């Protein structure tokens, strides 16, 4: 039986990250989260290092979804453009 993970968004993702995205990227990222992170987040997510070593990242086009896995919950802590640095994300953990 396949495990279905629940998805929880950090407040800053809801209030800052998502509103900055245009409609196309909102839908694309939402669909990728539903398809990949709800089923096998450890397979699709690349581990991060240094201050974000407890997190993983999923690349979706020009954006990265930064997330953390705890039990059967995936906590999305940031959605950033791939050229942007992860500044501020470590404060959300």
TrEMBL record:
InterPro entries: RelE/ParE_toxin, RelE/ParE_toxin_dom_sf. Keywords: Toxin-antitoxin system. SUPFAM superfamilies: RelE-like (SSF143011). It comes from the Bacteria. Belongs to the RelE toxin family. This is Addiction module antitoxin RelB. It comes from Candidatus Adlerbacteria bacterium RIFCSPLOWO2_01_FULL_54_16.
């Amino acid at each position: 039986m396949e495990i279905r993970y629940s998805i929880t968004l950090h407040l800053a993702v809801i209030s800052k990250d998502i509103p900055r995205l245009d409609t196309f990227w909102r839908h694309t990222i939402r669909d990728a989260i539903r398809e990949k992170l709800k089923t096998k987040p450890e397979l699709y997510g690349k581990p991060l290092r240094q201050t974000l070593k407890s997190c993983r990242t999923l690349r979706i086009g020009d954006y990265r979804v930064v997330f953390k896995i705890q039990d059967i919950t995936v906590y999305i802590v940031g959605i950033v453009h791939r050229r942007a640095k992860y500044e501020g994300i470590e404060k959300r953990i």
